[in-house]
Amino acid sequence: MLKPYQVYNTHSLSLCYNDYLLLQLLLCFWSSLFSLCLSLARNTKKILYLLQVAHKNSSMAKSICFCLQKLVFFILLSAIVSHARPPQVLPRQEPSYLKFVFNATDLPSEDYYDYIVVGGGTAGCPLAASLSHTFRVLLLERGGIAYGKANLMTQDGFLSTLVEVNAFDSPAQAFTSEDGVPNARGRVLGGSSAINAGFYSRADMDFYKNSGINWDLKLVNESYDWVERAIVFRPELKNWQSAVRDGLLEAGVDPYNGFSLDHIPGTKIGGSTFDSFGRRHSAADLLLYARAANIRVGVYASVERVLLASTTPFSGSRQSAIGVVFRDSNGRYHHAMVRRHGEVILSAGAIGSPQLLLLSGVGPRPQLSAWGIPVARHSPYVGQFLYDNPRNGISIVPSIPLEHSLIQVVGITEDGAYIEAASNIIPFASPARSVFIHTPSSPLYLTVATLMEKIVGPVSSGSLRLGSLDVRVNPIIRFNYFNNPVDVRRCVNGTRKLAGVLRSRSMEDFKFRDWFGNRDFRFVGPALPVNQTDEDQMADFCRRTVSTIWHYHGGCVVGKVVDGDFMVMGMNGLRVVDGSVFGVSPGTNPQATLMMMGRYVGMKIIRDRLRYS
Ligand SMILES: Cc1cc2nc3c(=O)[nH]c(=O)nc-3n(C[C@H](O)[C@H](O)[C@H](O)COP(=O)(O)OP(=O)(O)OC[C@H]3O[C@@H](n4cnc5c(N)ncnc54)[C@H](O)[C@@H]3O)c2cc1C
């Protein structure tokens, strides 16, 4: 009998940052009130004596009355404050899918399944949940679970999750591409959807036309609906996001499309996977749809390679995926094997899936041979056509307090630029120790507001190659940002739009006034070029300030590595279903499309197998 995964690190309560402050204030207040009452009780004799004296002395009577009035006022105020806004403590119920989640150490050393899904991420969770309705499914995830970890479970923990990283087990795995741009990938159940900024928007129509997949649009819409019913919310805009919406409209990014999950030109409020309490919902929550009796989820299960075998004894015949080898956190190896007509499906993401194909002997022959990996199939494009949408923008310290917000409002221009905004409260450490301030015991916090743009596409592409035979080590990655002039032109156009937003009336409130009464922004990092008509200066800004928006994709692109049914070309029983198959980005942020795709492929497999059996 297998023992379900235990959550050792559970916080039964978790608080938003603001609620935490409010709670601190209330605690302070109540404790002062308590000590006041205590000292009143201790000094009852003295007070009675004072009251007797006061009876004879009217000025003392007045001051005692004043003190008592103050006490009553404090009691009333506290009652009002605690009643008006109780601290929002976020209760956490243990998700019911945990009953079929197991630490890989508790999984058998060999077992058989109809479908083995590698990677419990954005596409992998909905895929496994859907398949479990008809088949016996194993979902293997190298990370742990988010439940019980406050930073992962709340919007306010977004930056901490990205900063608190280590080589082998942090929920975010950091990597830096050869372009010098720091990046991150999810390593936790829910994948990158469990560490991302939560913005949710369906793909644009061009994606369905150009992705190389013959989409059944009815099933596409049903699959989106399935996802949205469970984990998508309408965000509530506060000051920064509202100002950006107004600024975009003033800058001509119109019409205003209100709240919409569709990717349409103009300005809109998109969906969010954070609910109104700031709690994160991720692809892991789609496991709630699974049929518990048919599914096992193994966490801390690092898949090392896909097991391949020839289907016929003739040399040169097609190889089939017959299972996978994975390693648990004690270093013990396990074999998961597929039953007849079963499949291995890689959903390990745009970095993980090409890496696993290479480690399994599917990839460019020279690279495999150089690492001593037996070549199962020479597939020259594994790891090629890897893209990352460049992000450029500005950050300011605003002159007024701002809320903490991740992406909620977006501006979609016709010429390939896409504008988003965020505002973050970040800990601030002075580089030099001040002579006046001793090392502060608690950190100082600073609000930084950001306006950014990503370009559609991109056209520039890079590649990935093995850097180690250890699957836990990131491959070597290069994105070649702005290699293609089309991308530079789009970035310049987008940057000019950002300048338009900064010039809008809506942004005035965030400027500081100098000694002479002039108002201007306080930039953190580079400001936009002064002469925005100068093409070269603008292009230089794009190249100099490039960072990632984490929408990297490709590496097992449709038509190059997989066919229109996501099957690895030239192989049997092996598919790839995740962001690595995208040769074109979904226009918008990709998580909605990936979750839809997981559900979509699961339903397609079930329908096709029923049709042909
Ligand atoms: C910081 C950040 C912010 C983002 N913000 C947004 C946003 O606001 N909106 C949006 O739409 N998109 C956003 N994205 C992008 C989006 O989250 C990703 O594109 C998407 O989640 C990728 O999905 P995937 O299924 O391809 O891969 P993932 O979700 O990354 O899933 C891959 C899974 O496979 C596992 N895995 C890998 N290798 C192995 C192995 N060998 N064995 C076992 N398991 C393995 C990984 O641990 C991971 O869980 C963001 C991404 C990041 C990183």
From TrEMBL:
Reported cofactor(s): FAD
Pfam families linked: GMC_oxred_C, GMC_oxred_N
InterPro entries: FAD/NAD-bd_sf, GMC_Oxidoreductase-Related, GMC_OxRdtase, GMC_OxRdtase_N, GMC_OxRtase_C
Keyword rRNA-binding: no
Cystines in this chain: 491-542
PANTHER family: (R)-MANDELONITRILE LYASE-LIKE, OSJNBA0019K04.7 PROTEIN
Family (UniProt): Belongs to the GMC oxidoreductase family.
Record-given protein name: (R)-mandelonitrile lyase-like
Native source species: Ziziphus jujuba (Chinese jujube)
